[in-house]
Design a protein that fits this description.
Layout lengths: L1 E4 L6 H7 L4 E14 L5 E14 L3 H8 L6 E7 L5 E7 L18 H12 L2 E4 L2
């Protein structure tokens, strides 16, 4: 499975410590969101963020690393410009001590709001060739 990484998992040593089967793919740009620094990096609506695609079958290990079960991050599927999808982790801005106020529009859980935003705003991962 492809995962768009933009934070600590860009470091190959860190990524391989979490998911030993990981292979790094193409550089990529996520359009429609931007990176926000804080205790942990997260994403916010609008802009772009540079990253890379990582391929792994160990999604459970990544979910544990990102704290999905505890609600620290949510994982959403985002289309790529070459017809695939990539998983993207988005941190809960209320729990990450972000340097800027982050608001995902609408009602519902963070995952629901991010998924709606991805769909309605045409968020896409552009894969560099």
């Amino acid at each position: 499975m492809d995962v768009f990484v933009y934070g600590t998992l860009l470091d190959p040593h860190q990524a391989l410590a979490v998911v030993p089967d990981a292979t790094f793919g193409a550089d990529a740009t996520l359009h429609g969101v931007h990176a926000v620094e804080g205790e942990y990096p997260t994403l916010a609506p609008g802009g772009t963020v540079e990253g890379q695609l990582l391929t792994t079958e160990q999604m459970e290990a990544l979910d544990r690393y990102e704290g999905v079960d505890s609600g620290l991050y949510v994982r959403v599927s985002v289309p790529t410009d070459d017809g695939r999808t990539a998983e993207v982790y988005v941190g809960d801005p209320d729990r990450l001590d972000s340097e800027e106020a982050v608001g995902w529009p609408g009602d519902g859980t963070l995952a629901e709001r991010v998924e709606r935003y991805v769909d309605s705003e045409g968020v896409v991962v552009q894969v560099e060739s």
